[in-house]
Write a structure and sequence with these properties.
About 65% of the residues lie in helices and about 10% in strands. With about 625 residues, the chain is of the alpha/beta class. It has a 6-stranded mixed sheet with strand order 6-7-8-3-9-10, with helices on both faces. The protein is elongated.
């Protein structure tokens, strides 16, 4: 794993320095009291193995100076006090030791819970921040990104991938700040007790590290495939649940379920491999550690039984074995945390791919805030290509303020793309678009889009109240303005008949309303925004005749005193346009008013004839 990856996780973690350092402190105290709870067992063992007459006399401690002298002095002082207690009252000494060990265990667990308490808040703060950054970045990315990427894959990155980062944050704190401290403290204790046995115990650690590194490399590859497959799975769920009406109508439930089952099985197999590989490294490490532990018990026990001097009494040797078993725990935890970090790196790579994706359309450093639209919109030599395929070319067109202009043409001719360029969802490939003589690339995105209101063929509503949908984007909606907008859009009547009126939650994508009702809410939203420039993209094409009449009336009110662009398949809706342009294969081939275009051979005339217009 690269250092840059560790640095990223470190930056996530230490954004909250107070929580991070509190977790580290609690973990350090946990490690110290964990060791102390074990070492305090030595007097208990001495009481069990020896009578008071057999105890070797212990002299009063003398401080010799130096750091090691402090350790020796504390040890000798404790042993002297215990010796005095045992000689005077063995049962009282036993009670004292048991209470001391209990307190050590109690404080160990208190500090461990303290670490868990601060760590839980830290990890969820990180999850919140990363998920929030991903969501905001997704909103800022160009439409082309959303066209190429499956929504399910974005959902997987914001959920399962972010959850892996949560695990990595915990693993990092333990891997860098807790386990090394535990290893060092336990190792120094073991060396202090018996350097010879400790040297033997360390022989197999390099073998363990090599085996675990091999497992880790394989784990990362499999984890990345698993997360990608999960994205496909989420995309399939979103697509099929959104189209459940069609699935039922075509009796395709079995077909869709079988297709989903195949993807689900693929994910299950990959996820199973990830868990098996991740859980293998700590098991390998534990097995190697147990081998060393048993070797120490065998060889050390033989030396003691043979009466050879190894610097350890029987009870101290048993304590050594207990401490060594605790020495293995942080080593095994390092192995486990390394596996978690490796698995999370695949998720971090996927998160970075999204966070570092080019936004393509951004504000210039010296961009201009435009407050009003005063004169005209000019398209000059505009060309646009998508994935190296030309969509629009050589568009020259000027629209005066207050005009009603229409864009017509066959499907795929570039009508909607032309309006997407005006809103800077994409940037032109060649030429320029100017508003009041200013290139829109020199304007701030916020101020440009504040000038424009859109009503599209598909009414995009949100799972909030009717009032919030109308005042969408306004943090402090004005209810009088909301009601006035609804009245202009012919929506006030049906809204007041809803269960809770304007406070009625409209459901996901506004599914509690009919198509005509949703469209009138969308028009009310545009009225509330009160834009200078209006784009109507096939706004009535999906409606029945009765709904179309109500919506058309609302649109006519909305277009009053505004510069309006109307994209239409139903040519009856553009008869009164000040100017009509006809697009074919990305080029303007005709322009003029309705009667003018009908008076000569033209594609517009042919389209009108197909719709029974003359």
């Amino acid at each position: 794993m690269s250092m840059s990856y560790y640095k990223e996780i470190y930056n996530y973690t230490f954004k909250y320095k107070g929580l991070a350092w509190a977790t580290i402190l609690f973990n350090l105290l946990f490690v110290m009291f964990n060791l102390l709870s074990l070492v305090l067992f030595v007097p208990v063992l001495q009481l069990i193995f020896k009578s008071s007459e057999e105890l070797t006399a212990v002299a009063a401690p003398q401080f010799q100076g130096g750091v090691s002298g402090i350790v020796d002095y504390v040890r000798d002082a404790y042993n002297f006090e215990m010796y005095t207690l045992v000689k005077a009252d063995p049962k009282g000494a036993l009670l004292f030791v048991c209470v001391s060990v209990f307190l050590a265990f109690f404080l160990k667990n208190v500090f461990r819970y303290g670490a868990v308490w601060t760590q839980s808040q830290l990890r969820m703060c990180v999850v919140r921040d990363v998920r929030g950054a991903l969501f905001e970045k997704s909103l800022r990315l160009p439409l082309a990104y959303h066209s190429n990427e499956k929504k399910g894959d974005l959902m997987a990155r914001m959920n399962s991938d972010v959850n892996e980062i949560e695990v990595a944050v915990v693993s990092l704190l333990e891997l860098i700040f807790r386990e090394p401290l535990a290893i060092i403290i336990n190792l120094l204790t073991l060396i202090y007790m018996s350097p010879q046995l400790t040297l033997i115990s360390l022989l197999l650690l390099p073998v363990s590290a090599f085996v675990i590194s091999r497992i880790g490399k394989s784990l990362k590859r499999t984890a990345q495939k698993t997360q990608e497959q999960l994205g496909f799975l989420y995309a399939s769920m979103d697509e099929n649940l959104g189209g459940v009406r069609v699935i039922k109508a075509f009796n395709a439930i079995r077909f869709v379920a079988d297709t989903f089952a195949q993807k689900n099985n693929q994910h299950q197999k990959l996820a199973t491999r990830v868990f098996r590989k991740r859980d293998l490294s700590p098991l390998v490490n534990e097995t190697l550690g147990a081998t060393v532990l048993l070797a120490l018990v065998y060889f050390g026990g033989r030396l003691i039984l043979n009466g050879e001097q190894i610097g350890l009494s029987g009870e101290v040797f048993l304590t050594y074995i207990i401490v060594f078993s605790q020495f293995l725990r942080p080593i095994q935890s390092v192995s486990n945390n390394m596996a978690n970090m490796t698995k999370a790196q695949a998720s971090q790579d996927r998160i970075n791919a999204l966070l570092h994706a080019s936004e393509a359309v951004t504000d210039k450093s010296n961009c201009i805030d435009i407050q009003n639209f005063e004169k005209e919109i000019a398209f000059s030599q505009v060309g646009f290509s998508y994935q190296e395929q030309p969509v629009l070319q050589d568009i020259n067109w000027t629209v005066k303020k207050g005009s009603l202009v229409a864009i017509v043409g066959e499907s795929g001719s570039g009508k909607s793309t032309l309006m997407d360029l005006l809103q800077r969802f994409y940037d032109v490939t060649s030429g320029d678009i100017k508003v009041d003589g200013i290139d829109i690339r020199d304007l701030s995105l916020a101020s440009l889009r504040n000038l424009i209101g859109v009503v599209s063929q598909e009414s995009i509503l949100f799972n909030v109240s009717a009032a919030q949908n109308i005042a969408f984007g306004d943090e402090h909606p004005d209810m009088e303005k909301v009601i006035a907008a609804a009245q202009v859009a012919n929506a006030h009547g049906f809204i007041t008949e809803l269960d809770n009126g304007y406070d009625t939650i409209l459901g996901e994508r506004g599914n509690k309303l009919s198509g005509g009702q949703k469209q009138r809410i969308a028009i009310a939203r545009a009225v509330y925004k009160d834009p200078a420039i209006l784009i109507l993209d096939e706004a009535t094409s999906a409606l029945d005749t009765a709904s179309e009449t109500l919506v058309q009336q609302a649109l006519e009110k909305l277009m009053e005193n505004r510069t309006s662009f109307v994209i239409a398949h139903r040519l009856s809706t553009v008869r009164n346009a000040d100017q009509i342009i006809v697009l074919s294969k990305g080029e303007i081939i005709e322009r003029g008013q309705h009667e003018e275009l009908l008076g000569k051979p033209s594609l517009y005339k042919d389209l009108c004839a197909l719709q029974g217009l003359s």
